[in-house]
Amino acid sequence: MTRPQGSAARELGLKRGEFDLAVRLGRIRTVAAPDGGRRRVPREEIDRIREAEGFPDTLREQVRVVGTAQGAEIMDIPPTRFTRLARAGMLTPVTFYLNRYRAVVWLYPAQELKEFADSEVNAPLLTGRAPDKMRARIAAGEDRRPRTWRARHAGYLLGQCGGPWERAAAIATLLDPTQLAELVESPYERAHLHRLRPEERWYGAPESPTARVVERILVADDPGEISWLRANLLLSLDEARRREPAPRPAAPQPPPEVAREPQGTLAPEPAPAEPTRSLWGRLLGRRG
Q1: What are the CA-CA distances from residue 152 to residues 21, 26, 30, 92, 156 (Å)?
Q2: Which domain-ending residue is among 62, 88, 107?
Q3: pTM of the full predicted structure?
Q4: Cis link prior to 56 (omega < 30° from 0)?
Q5: Among candidates 119, 76, 123, 116, which has minimal Cα distance to 93?
Q6: pLDDT at 274 over 60
Q7: 95-98 and 104-109: which strand pairing?
Q8: What ranges in the chain are assigned the alpha helix state H?
Q9: Banded pLDDT at 208 (limits 50, 70, 90)
Q10: What are the Cα distances from residue 197, in Å, to 31, 68, 80, 160, 170?
Q11: 118 and 203 belong to one structural domain
Q12: Which secondary structure element, helix H or strand E, spans residue 97, and what is its range?
């Protein structure tokens, strides 16, 4: 037995955004819907979470996200150091939004930040001089926040896939359309991948300013990242083609033939009908 995501969110006391984050972070397991619609939540998964110690406060804390200022406070470091750690790829955002100036605001799981700060391995990153490699990235103006977000996002998308075509479609969302056309020459396969694209509801209206900004974040631009995506796309496509080729449109059926008379041959004329004799004529005939 399964429940729709909206119903599951209400039973777990989560707002819709909190529920989506819980799924992305792996806190709530979902399964494919039998009819191919939106994924659903098993009844036993809802019961497991509700019966966990500390519910619902523990679950809400697991999905709490914070920005730079709150994140720096959790880690007990200045906001400038927090930003440098994030830009260097040491902290991974889980989501983002655009403020009224269309600037990207990155959000991080509060629990992950606390775990990062509590780890002795990361202590040198929180105080004193930053490592040379990290300083070089920052000096070069590198910002790895979009890339680290894409890595997390790709892991989430691939975890929802049920087969190689779905995996290929998930990877395709992170590649530039030009590269996708280069790797997938068949228009039927590209159309199939487009139909299987994962559902995303926060990109804004097509061609809107928000959609254009999100597109720049969503599409990979790092050479190493692109190479990894291309290789995995080709592997998924190879497996998908061996299992089941992409569907093609049915061939058009020829119109039914109409029976025609052979050319040059005239149809025989009907035999003339025998004239009908009137009652008076039949009587005269008998008399003669």
Answers
A1: 12, 11, 17, 8, 6
A2: 62
A3: 0.82
A4: yes
A5: 116
A6: no
A7: antiparallel
A8: 5-11, 16-24, 43-51, 57-62, 68-75, 79-87, 110-118, 123-126, 132-139, 145-159, 164-172, 177-183, 187-195, 209-218, 223-243, 279-287
A9: confident
A10: 17, 32, 38, 12, 6
A11: no
A12: strand 95-98
* Domains of the chain: total: 3
**Residue 284, domain member (yes or no):** no
Same domain (yes/no): 187, 234 = yes
- Give the domain-ending residue among 101, 124, 142: 142
288's tokens: 């003669």
**How does pLDDT run across 155-177, given as a tens digit for each residue?**
999 999 989 999 999 999 999 99
Judgement on whether residues 54 and 83 belong to the same structural domain of the protein: no
Structure tokens that stand for 220 in this block: 């990979």
* Residues pairing with 107 in the sheet: 95
Whole-Å CA distances, 257 to 228, 241, 254, 260, 261: 55, 38, 9, 9, 13
**Amino acid identity at 279:** L
Residue 248 identity (one-letter amino acid): R
Structural domain boundaries, residue 17:
2-62
The residue behind tokens 């003669």 is: 288
User: Any bridge partners for residue 241, and if so which?
Assistant: none
